[in-house]
Design goal:
heterodimer, A: alpha+beta, 2 domains, eleven-stranded mixed beta sheet, two-stranded antiparallel ribbon, B: alpha/beta, Rossmann fold, five-stranded parallel beta sheet, 11 strands, 32% helix, 24% strand, globular
């Protein structure tokens, strides 16, 4: 029966290809939209959840979070390094990472920090930053790839993108990060004190700027011993005013998870629109698939009648058509799944700017439900048809 | 042996045909002659179990087929009867082999297919699509499909109806040859083919009632 079903399908290949395409497109879009929305949501939240709190200058909390976690947007401003020292002495804290973002290399941002900041990353070549060394650079995968950098090369950063005026001191590339499809791929990392040194030894024309750069950071990433202590620290540091060299600085302390959640809540409306659109596409395709299948079966009436005349039972004929449409449904759902994964791969570079890596092997139960639904939709019209055919035997027509 | 006793068939359009009692002996060939609409094809369809008589009985080898269920009649038709239809009843987009292979859906042994196709001089077209065959070739495929399962009873409805006389006679000769020793009941209106049969039955004399076409034409 399987062979006969396959041969029968081969005869109707154009019709079947159209049905399969219709199912693959609708189911693929549905599954892809769900998966991407969910993974972006989960990924952003996961990234945000890595640190208990971030302390930075007063201003936009979203800007502070986006700048420190995804290197997006400009830093809110700077705060004295004294804040870092205070936090390092705090018994409630288990990890303190200073973060400064200044300068750029051919358009790629330069971050000054400590080796801890890259503790979750791995190098594809060379070694990681060493806190005891200076004038080192560990570059992201894209920075190395698009600038042809190798370990041992010396790079010269500048104050602003496109500026021909570079620092006279070069940074030696000691490591190249493994590609992570995240914003880390597009950044040059160096020691925080290296960033200060470069600015201290700049030309006279930047004297004022160098004064500001000296012993300042853009933010401090903190991990507290527990969420309760993290909350205490946020309350303590948020709005705190510190004075250095007669100049006062107002701090803000944020819980990155809460900030990102707020951002995602705003984005949720867009996500729902995507889901509604997908649902509409799916419903339309349910109708199209049903109509195509029923028309197909209607046109098969002559063939069914012929088989009945030579003695093939309705039971066998029903099984044959259910088998055929089952195979079409199975093939379509498998292809839809594969297409959605291929699209995930293609979309990875795009969403990596948000620091999210789309995992091709990540499958949500809801995706399986969508695919199961699509499979049933492709088989259901045949079952309905064969039910009526069994009740009204075409041999008598 | 096939025994027809007191059967009549009433159709939805109120047309009714009454049949006289008939007996078809096993292993003999019968030619049913008669005008269009006199009930020849209807009789074949009732013997094949495709139609049920409105009243009366059709007994095949002692088994009353008119009392059998549709499922039993289907089973009997696939196992015991080879039916050659006037319009071939072949799936045009399928190959010759697949049109015969369709019988495997019911577990019919078609191992004799190649031999049958060779015997009917159509073997070289085994993998050709039916739509590319001539009328004579299609008829041979229909005969091969009917006989490949080695049925006891062969029913042929106008087997030469779509063919010119020369090809029709050749097909009839081949049909009689491959069905030797079996019960063959063939419907035709061409009495030039009578020489190929053991018994000729004039269906105009064997039926009566409101036979629409026959009545209009006044019979043959």
């Amino acid at each position: 029966m399987l062979m006969f079903a396959l041969k029968n399908m081969a005869i109707k290949r154009v019709q079947i290809i159209l049905i399969v395409l219709s199912i693959v497109i609708s189911a693929g879009i549905g599954v892809l939209a769900f998966n991407v929305a969910q993974q972006v949501d989960d990924g952003i939240t996961d990234n945000a959840g890595y640190y208990s709190l971030i302390v930075g200058p007063a201003g936009s909390s979203t800007q502070l979070a986006m700048n420190t976690m995804y290197f997006a947007e400009e830093p809110v401003g700077t705060i004295p390094y004294e804040v870092v020292s205070d936090l390092q002495r705090d018994q409630r804290v288990i990890q303190v990472i200073p973060f400064a973002m200044a300068d750029n290399y051919n358009g790629y941002g330069v971050v000054g920090t400590t080796a801890d900041f890259l503790s979750t990353k791995a190098v594809a070549a060379g070694v990681m930053l060493a806190d005891g060394e200076s004038m080192q650079a560990v570059v992201g995968a894209n920075v190395a790839k698009y600038n042809g950098l190798q370990v041992g090369d010396v790079i010269y950063t500048s104050h602003s993108a496109g500026s021909s005026e570079t620092h006279t001191q070069g940074l030696t590339v000691v490591g190249i990060l493994q590609e992570s499809h995240s914003s880390f791929d597009n950044i040059v990392f160096t020691q925080l004190h290296t960033l200060w040194e470069m600015h201290d030894h700049g030309g006279e024309e930047h004297e004022e700027e160098h004064d500001h750069a000296h012993k300042t950071v853009c933010a401090v990433l903190v991990n507290a011993k527990n969420p309760g202590l993290a909350m205490q620290l946020v309350n303590e540091y948020h709005g705190k005013i510190i004075t250095e060299e007669g100049k006062s600085h107002t701090l803000q302390a944020i819980e990155p998870m809460a900030v990102v959640r707020d951002v995602l809540n705003d984005a949720d409306n867009t996500k729902y629109i995507v889901f509604v659109l997908c649902a509409v596409i799916l419903v339309m395709n349910i109708m199209i698939i049903s109509i195509i299948t029923l028309l197909n079966m209607y046109h098969s009436a002559k063939e069914i009648s012929l088989m009945r005349l030579i003695g093939i039972s309705m039971k066998r004929i029903n099984l044959l058509y259910i088998l055929q449409n089952g195979m079409i449904g199975l093939l379509s759902t498998l292809l839809a799944f594969c297409v959605s994964r291929a699209c995930l791969l293609l979309m990875n570079d795009y969403v990596s700017s948000m620091g999210v890596v789309l995992n091709m092997s990540k499958v949500y139960p809801a995706e399986l439900l969508i695919l199961l639904g699509v499979f049933l939709i492709s088989v259901l019209p045949t079952m309905i048809w064969t039910y009526f055919m069994a009740r009204k035997d075409s041999i008598h027509e | 042996m096939i025994e027809i006793k007191g059967i009549s068939k009433q159709f939805q359009n109120e047309t009714e045909i009454d049949y006289r009692d008939m007996t078809f002996e096993s292993g003999r060939s019968y030619m049913l002659l008669g005008a269009s609409g006199c009930g020849k094809s209807t009789l074949l369809n009732m013997i094949a179990g495709i139609l049920s008589p409105t009243k009366g009985s059709i007994t095949i080898d002692g088994r009353d087929m008119s009392a059998a269920t549709q499922k039993e009649r289907d089973r009997f038709r696939i196992e015991r009867i080879g039916y050659i239809f006037q319009d071939f009843k072949l799936i045009n987009d399928m190959t010759v082999a697949d049109n015969i292979g369709i019988l495997r859906l019911e577990g019919v042994d078609i191992s004799g297919m190649d031999e049958m196709l060779k015997h009917l001089a159509i073997y070289e077209k085994k993998n050709a699509r039916v739509k590319h065959l001539s009328g004579g070739q299609k008829q041979r495929v229909a005969i091969a499909r009917a006989l490949v399962k080695r049925p006891d009873i062969i029913l042929a409805d106008e087997p030469t109806g779509n063919l010119n006389f020369a090809i029709g006679e050749q097909v009839m000769r081949e049909l009689c040859e491959v069905s030797r020793g079996k019960t063959l009941i063939a419907v035709t209106h061409d009495d030039r083919l009578a020489k190929y049969f053991d018994v000729i039955i004039d269906m105009n004399e064997m039926t009566s009632g409101m036979r629409d076409t026959v009545s209009e034409q006044g019979g043959v």
